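ESCALATION

Customer reports they have been waiting on this structure for their group meeting. Please prioritize. Original submission:
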Amino acid sequence: PDKIDCGSFILNTAGRINMGLDIINALSNHYQVELPIFIDNAESVNKLMPVASQIIKLIVSNDKKLRIENE
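Update from on-call: job pushed to the front of the queue and completed.
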């Protein structure tokens, strides 16, 4: 689904991704573990929530070959 109803508010794809990152941050802090995070549909988010972990963005493109970039 494009949107998720969370009671009094509705989250779009970017909101769901950032909500997931917020949960990952809380669990990472609690367990004192940082693991790489894969984000699918990363093109849907203009600004990702900051995290201490490495982020690997999976983005849709029209390229014919797999492209890997380092930011």
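Sent to customer with the following note: The mean pLDDT is 89.
Escalation resolved.
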